[in-house]
Amino acid sequence: MAITLTETAARRVEKFLANRGKGIGLRLGVKTTGCSGMAYTLEFVDETKPEDIVFESRGINVIIDPKSLVYIDGTELDFAKEGLNEGFKFNNPNVKDECGCGESFTV
Fold it and tell me: Alpha carbon of 66 to those of 25, 45, 50, 51, 60: distances in Å?
């Protein structure tokens, strides 16, 4: 089981954490929402919870709750700029289908 970051994503997370002035890593998760059923969540973390699973990728702590790990195990987080848009991109091998707007997915 693992969650990884590309070099571009790791640099972006480092920049966000530096701008915040605190934080121990990035929490990835899923929530039930959208037209396909699940959506990704991202938040910066100042402390872990006892049930958290922590992965290290390119010097960044990636924190996952056990319920979300089932849906995002093996995911690679990237950061991409496309024209005027930029943001994190999830390369999740578990995804079976995505909604047309790209905001939610099913496994």
Answer: 17, 16, 11, 7, 19
**C-alpha of 75 from chain center:** 8
Phi, psi of 32 (to 5 degrees): -80, 120
Strands 37-45 and 76-82: unpaired
Q: CB 29: neighbour CB atoms within 10 A?
A: 18
> For the chain, how big is the Rg over CA atoms in Å?
14
Mean pLDDT of 82-93: 87
Quick: pLDDT tens for 19-71: 999 999 999 998 887 665 788 899 999 999 999 999 999 999 999 999 999 88
Q: In whole angstroms, give the CA distance from residue 82 to residue 105.
A: 21
Looking at the predicted structure, is the pLDDT value of residue 101 above 60?
no
* Residue 27 Cα distances to 34, 68, 77, 94, 100, angstroms: 20, 10, 12, 19, 26
